[in-house]
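Table S2 (continued). Query chain:
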Amino acid sequence: MNKDQITKEYSNGEITVVWQSAKCIHSGNCVRNLSSVFKPKESPWIKIENAGSDEIINAVQKCPSGALSIKPV
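Corresponding output:
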């Protein structure tokens, strides 16, 4: 798989955050809106256990590129 076309999923049992690297424009909106969950310097960079589902959904909806999305578990 091309390293620029990675898709990763992070689930907390209620929701799953889907990240698509090819769409990511690195706007930083996710980090600014919910830095407890989105930690680009760590691996894995999404710490879904660090916030409630509603907070995460709200932050993901602010992603301008659509690289982050939510799917129900």
